[in-house]
């Protein structure tokens, strides 16, 4: 059965009101979500306390999104200095999430996302493993770094590093800030899907929901393991202060009896189905 992974990238102080509205929608339906957070936000104790008050309880998990929204480097660009910087960013964010929020980190989402995730990047995978990361979401765009990201199933990076089997859980579809026209990202022509692209950016929650419904319905029809769009609380709040699009999506999922889970929940489901 297809699961829906509700996730939100918390990247700036202006995300707080969006997090509040999003969490309110999730509490309304009693369904979980994953927040991937930039660690430097938690340096402000008051901000961290307010964020914690919003996401406290078992519905919500908080995972690592680097400390400074660090863009990953690949191949020959990955030298000793970058590996050290990456390790420091992971460590610092893990510590802040533990100290400020009382949570243990096992997951990581890279800023931006990449067409092939971390394939071939053994050194980056080892740094992630050494810092307690067991699942990642780094494959989040399509060919040539375009959006929307095509459907892809979870997979282990066992060919790259058999001793450190990290699970990639790809993201799918639109990044909501791009769909709304708030940030630019190229699209691929011809479209990856039969239904193509919206004629224009949505201007109402109902219009935005209609785009996500196409992806959800396709995932269910094809019996895919999961569907995982990416939302940003600042973008959600800018579009609609009550996060009505999120409410429409959650209402539809509940009505259709489509399970909603966190990234770590899907990770553990995958572990049980495909033991390492």
What does this structure look like?
The mean pLDDT is 95. The strands form three sheets. Strands 5-6-8-7 form a four-stranded mixed β-sheet, with helices on one face. The two termini are 22 Å apart. It has helices spanning 16-29, 45-55, 80-101, 122-130, 176-179, 205-221, 233-239, 244-255, 263-273, and strands at residues 3-5, 7-10, 33-37, 60-64, 107-114, 135-139, 155-156, 167-168, 226-227, 260-261. It has a single domain, classed as Glycoside hydrolase/deacetylase (TIM Barrel, Alpha-Beta Barrel). The protein is an alpha/beta fold and 276 residues long. It contains nine helices and ten strands. Strand 3, helix 2 (45-55) and strand 4 (60-64) form a beta-alpha-beta unit.
Order of helices and strands: EEHEHEHEHEEEHHEHHEH
Let me know the largest β-sheet. 4 strands, mixed
Radius of gyration: 18 Å
Strand order within the widest sheet?
5-6-8-7
Low-confidence stretches: none
Layout of strands and helices, then pairs:
Elements: E1 3-5, E2 7-10, H1 16-29, E3 33-37, H2 45-55, E4 60-64, H3 80-101, E5 107-114, H4 122-130, E6 135-139, E7 155-156, E8 167-168, H5 176-179, H6 205-221, E9 226-227, H7 233-239, H8 244-255, E10 260-261, H9 263-273
Parallel strand pairs: 1-9, 1-10, 2-3, 3-4, 5-6, 6-8
Antiparallel strand pairs: 7-8
Helix pairs in contact: 1-2, 1-7, 1-8, 3-4, 6-8
